Amino acid sequence: MSDLTAIKGVTRPILARLGKLGLQTVDDLLLHLPLRYVDETHLTPIRDLRVGEQAQVEGEIIHAETQYRPRKALICQLQDDAGGLLHLRFLHFYPSQVAALRPGARIRAFGEARPGFFGMEMVHPQCRAAREDKPLSEALTPVYPTTAGLSQASIRKLVGWALAHADLSETLPADIYAALKLPTFSNSLNFLHHPPPEVHLDSLQKRSHDAWRRLAFDELLAQQLSMRRHHARRRTQGAPRLNPQQRLTLALLKRLPFALTGAQQKVWAEISHDLAQPHPMQRLLQGDVGSGKTIVSALAALQAVENGWQAAIMAPTEILAEQHYRKLHDWLTPLGINIAWLTGTQAKQAREAALEAVSGGTAQIAVGTHALFQEQVQFARLGLAVIDEQHRFGVHQRLALRQKGEQPHQLMMSATPIPRTLAMSYYADLDVSVIDELPPGRTAVATKLVSDSRREEVLTRVREACQQGRQSYWVCPLIEESEALQLKTAMETYEQLGAALPELKVGLVHGRMKPAEKQAVMRAFTANEVQLLVATTVIEVGVDVPNASLMVIEHAERMGLSQLHQLRGRVGRGSAQSACILLYQAPLSETARARLKIIYENTDGFEISRADLHLRGPGEFLGIRQSGVPLLKIADLERDSDLLEIARDTADRLLREQPEAAAAHLMRWMGRAQEYVKV
Ligand code: ADP
Ligand code: MG
Q1: 291 CB less than 6 Å from ligand 1?
Q2: Residue nearest to atom 13 of ligand 1 (CA)
Q3: Is residue 303 part of a domain?
Q4: Which of 57, 174, 229, 538 matches a 20 to 30 Å C-alpha distance to 415?
Q5: Nearest Cα to 163, choosing from 193, 200, 184, 133?
Q6: Is the minimum distance from the CB of 415 to ligand 1 under 6 angstroms?
Q7: Could you report the average pLDDT of every consecutive run of 10 residues in the chain (679 residues)?
């Protein structure tokens, strides 16, 4: 029984509102847990009210009036049996409330007491008529997440119905919970939806209570089951075995001007091994900016090619795709490899030629933007798909990729390190490799926080760096509200800098430029024909110009931590001492200060990611809040990290030994969705 229409009184509009809350089945209702609780179990004498505390009082309205100055307000005076006086103040009210709060009415009010002009008052307390026959609540009252048009009382009623009618039996063997010393599903839910009278507010609000932990564990387990099932299922699907032939890969390694770092060798071995398996690889390669992921992807592509298969490499921006193309071109054309280049904006003729090379198999490798994975693109024999900067792609683009070719192996690369708890949860269907070492000879980037009022000094630094033969980036402020305004600001900055630094060749690159224009500017910068590159955040990912040693970021306080870290990673790639100047507009808010401090104090991308995750939460961090990917609602990855580990082991064991129990558990927790879409 899962249909909400089975509940009496659930009309279409109510269904729609429940849908807004993500509630589609009776099980969903069961698992719709209170946000918090209020204590309406006793009455507080007015004279005992304490500032800032929530309390319930009862008494008679002895005076009520609507004031018009300074603004419209309904003010009532409530007197309790002990003679205490309290003002109730309403800034928004209906005629029905004025009628209910008329003098002589006996009222029960619940709210937070605060000092007012006439002594203690409550602003917008919840009021209801106090009747002799109406007893006080026996237990704490749950407060649920809700939406417009759905009152707390209605939700409570619906949840109550679900508790009484749904199946609350255990889905999993009891020993799992016994080992964790956690209560049953039924007890936990009854406890949280209808707390018993003796329970105190504190212990309930605290989500470390066993009832909360039980449900958090169940939720984590459902997530693990769905992700690990994906993982297991992949092992039953076929993919071409791409055995290491050591022909092209070795040839490339020999030609490189550098040797792979130990970390690169380690991840390359993992990837090479995966490619030789008869089922599709899905591996996430993480490595801080500049750790050298590109060469690893080139080696992987070659392993596909030396087995007679094609490889596709997709990047999130045209600039980055072109840079990959050039790099691979330099590395691989001498080995006799043909590389096709595909973007959404290239001329028709070039595009058709590229499409033909890809479908005819004359191009062994294709590089491009997401245009690579559109309908018209047919690969002759796609064996491997590489997705660079995967955190920048939408979920849909990544899923579209699965549909290409039989089951290509997939290598996803990311420079935004994913903290361990996230990797273990939202990425649990993937295998993960980490490059945890930077190539030798990198110089640490000195980070400076500079108030915008000291712009002149910054200009001097830029001039000096460029006059010494180095190059600089100048990143324009991010203006999220308006792209037009952002563009205007970039143009203005470009003009101002050009005027202030007439001796330098200044270039501008922004998101609205035609790809050809962008490429021309980037080429000029790479060739050191442009010394100072003014840019919007389009340069955020992947650009590699080792001669650039200075990065100036305007309004750094507006940018995300990962973004700042990525931008900073554009410098410090050559041998010159590099610096990153974070310009900020004073005064800084508390949070802005905290964030800039993290960037200032840390150079390790993992540390920064962890801090970022902590500040923004997983939904924002992963960019999946709006994407339809189910987020954990009860469990908290930090607080419940001990449960996460156990859930992972339990999930693998259940899938192996008790698949029916696993299926029942997934049905309860995920209903029709059943699967966490892969991120
Ligand atoms: P990212 O991981 O950010 O994509 P890249 O692949 O762009 O980093 O590499 C950054 C720079 O480091 C490139 O210029 C690349 O050629 C160089 N590089 C990569 N591996 C090594 C290495 N083992 N030794 C020296 N330089 C390397
Ligand atoms: Mg890169």
Answers
A1: yes
A2: 292
A3: yes
A4: 229
A5: 193
A6: yes
A7: 75 89 88 89 90 90 90 92 93 89 93 86 90 78 88 90 92 92 95 87 84 96 89 85 94 94 97 96 89 95 97 87 90 95 88 94 94 83 89 56 68 84 83 90 87 94 94 86 80 94 93 83 92 80 81 90 86 87 90 89 86 79 61 87 93 92 90 47
